[in-house]
Every structure is written in structure tokens, then in C-alpha cells.
Write a structure and sequence with these properties.
- The protein has one domain.
- About 65% of the residues lie in helices and about 0% in strands.
- It has helices at about 10-35, 40-45, 50-60, 70-85, 90-115, 120-145, 150-160, 185-205, 210-230, 235-250, 255-270, 270-280, 290-305, 320-330, 350-380, 385-400, 410-425; strands at about 170, 175-180.
- A two-stranded antiparallel ribbon has the order 1-2.
- Helix 1 runs parallel beside helix 6 (about 120-145), helix 4 (about 70-85) runs antiparallel to helix 15 and helix 16 (about 385-400) packs antiparallel against helix 17.
- The longest helix is centred in the last third of the chain and has 28 residues, at about 350-380.
Length: about 450
Amino acid sequence: MDDTVARPTLRPAGERAAWLATAVWTALGVVLWIMFPMTASVLLPACTIAPLAWYGLAERRLPFYRPSLVTAWLGVAAVYLGVNASWSLSPTDAARTVILVFLMVATLQVVFNALPDLAEAPLQAMAVGALAGVTAGSALLCFEVLTDQLLRRLLIHLVPALEPRPQHVAMAGGRLMLAPYLPNPNVSVLTLLFWPAALTANRLGLMRARKHLALVLLGSAIVVATVYASEHATSQLAFLGAAATFLLFRMRPKLALPLVIAGWMAMNLLVVPVVSVLYSAEAYRVPWLPDSARHRVVIWGYTSGLIPKAPMFGAGISTGRALNEAADAVDTPVVPGTRYHLAPGLHSHNAYLQVWYETGAVGAFILLGLGLIVLRSLSGFPAPIAPYLVATFVACALSVATAFAIWAPWFMASLAMAAIFARAGAVLPERAARSASPTG
């Protein structure tokens, strides 16, 4: 974009009120996302409201943008998934997934292109709101993790309908006890948000002001404590991998990006033989592995054995979940000497394997191409920004490797929202170490 073109801006009379409204709107959305991740699919389209409102009020019209290569490729993925859904064994879940993917494409197309066209004031308002939301949300989540989910238990007492399924609840000494893995989705969201938030803090100049640096470090410490005090090993590995990538990119950028590209290609192209070897080697019997990890080996091994039945176009979106539900209704055999059923599992716990099984080689090629296109675009950002963006990509790539199911609406929407917040931080004009407000 030509920087000589005047960017739209609001008239000064209403700028402060609009600035505060945008900051509060963004902060509330981030807190809601962190504390209630299942709302992500509703919050995703809401990400368009502030950018479109600022642009529309300034220009008296809504913007139109041609699709970028990333959104065009996502559009191809959405079309293919729409076709693939026609032979799914779970048509309702498949249709919901396709609708959400099209919504993601539209949201990313609008927000990614509108953000660079906004004036500095709305960008700062969104940035300050995002940081305030991450700070408040991470503090609340840290309290939850360290107090055995006290807030959730109090909320359940007030609204009994919010009580989880019986397998996630126990009573001990007359006290309601919740399974320690229930906050895992919350921790996953916080892990995805950390690097966009760090980029935003850097662009606002908070890391160059002594009075703000202490707060930034405290906030970072709270996030790290929350992630590593939780039960979510996937987020812990994703955080560690993203941090290592960030440091390597800062020190050896010419080495870091090729390594990330190689890692992305390996996760997409080698996942089937790797999980097959793990299963054949009976890694599910290794005593020092956590129980959940051993169960994943069985899920992955069984799923990899189903891929040859539909290698090119896959078995259909959410078919694995449908097969698991069918297996629950019958006496499904278990792996000898274990209690692990031979079934795809309620969650695939590996997006790359799930894509190979349910969308086939075509879907795997589309996913591989999407990541390569994104990484190519990230390489074009200047040195102060690129490490944060690549770290965000790695956090997302590692988060989907061993957690949840890729078609879970909240999970897909959360990945898209992480990209949106990273984009917002990237287009934010760099400021000196002073207050980020409409008056500077």
C-alpha cells in the first residue's frame, strides 16, 4: 500500500469516546475468549465490527478488497471441504465445519485488509484493549488453575446447568471436585495469544519504558506460570517450541525460517509413517509416558490404519468422531494388556493425521500449501516484527499436533483469532516509550 495515501480517520470530536469504546470492546472480547473458549466461533465474526466501524465512519462506505493469496488458498480449502462433507458419516458436524470455514475466510479477508487502512488511533485502541484483556484474562485463568477451578465451581453452584458431564466431576468430602484437565482449552487459547500480545506490547513501546517493562514482565510471568501449572502438556510444548523459535529467529533469522519450513513439511508429510512406527513399536506400553500420551498412540495407530481405505479424498469430515461414537455403542476390542479401545477416539489429538484420514492426500496437500504460503508471507515482514509472527505460527502448528480435534468450532476459530491479533500487532505503528492514548 502506498503510504502517501491519506488513511481514513474519525473527526476529533468523537475520537476519544470511540477510542475508549473500541478498547473496552476488545478487552471484553479477549477476556471472554480466554475464560470461555467455546465462545470463539461467535467472537470470530465480531472481530470485524471495530475495524469496519472505524473505516465506515471515516469513509462513509465499506471497503472492498481483492482476496490475498492466503485467503484465496483458504477459499480453495473451504470449497474442497464442502465437497468432502458430502460423504461424511457425520453430515451435521461436517456441514457445521464447512460453514465455519467459510466464515473464517470472510472474517480474515475483511480484517486482514481493513487493519492496515485504519488510522493510528483505532489501531492503538485495539492494541491497548487486547493487552488489557490478555492481562485480566491470564490473571483470572492463573487463579483458576492454582485454586482447583474455584471460579468455575462457584459458577456451577450459582447455575447448576453449567455442571460438566459426570465423568468430569467427583465429590470428595462433600466438596465438588472438577477434573484438572477442564481448563486445557483455556490454556491453549492463552498459549496462542501470548506472542501476538508480546508483539503488541513491543510496538506500543512498553518494553522500552522502565515503568511499563516491569508490568510486561509480570504479565509474562503470569502466563508462563499458568501454562506450566496446568495439566495441558500440549500447550507447554507449544509454548516452549514457540519460545525457542523466537530466540533462534532473533539470533539466526536465516537459519530459523528454513528450519520452521522443514518442520512444517515434516509434520504434514511424515505424520502417517511416524505414528504407524510408534504404534508398531508398542509405544503405548512405555511406562514413563503419561496415560493420555499412551492412549494417543493407540488412537493414532488405529487411525493411520484406516487411511488406505480412502487415500486420495479421505473418509469425510468428522467421520472419525462418528466411528468412535459407533464404537462406544458396541463391545469394541481393546489393545491386549491395556484398557485402550481400538477406535479413532472422540478427539483425533493430531490435526495432521486427522486431515490425512478425513480429507485424504488432497486435503493434506492443501494444508501443507497453506502453511508454506503463510510462512512465505511472514518472511517479508521487517526484523523487529517477523520473530513474533513466526513464533505465533509455531505455537499454532504445535498446538494442533497433539490436542483436541481440528474441526472443533472453538479450536478453528481460535486459530483464526490468533492470526487476527498477530496481524493487528504487525500493522501497529511503532511508538516511543510513552502512553498509548488518543492524545499521545
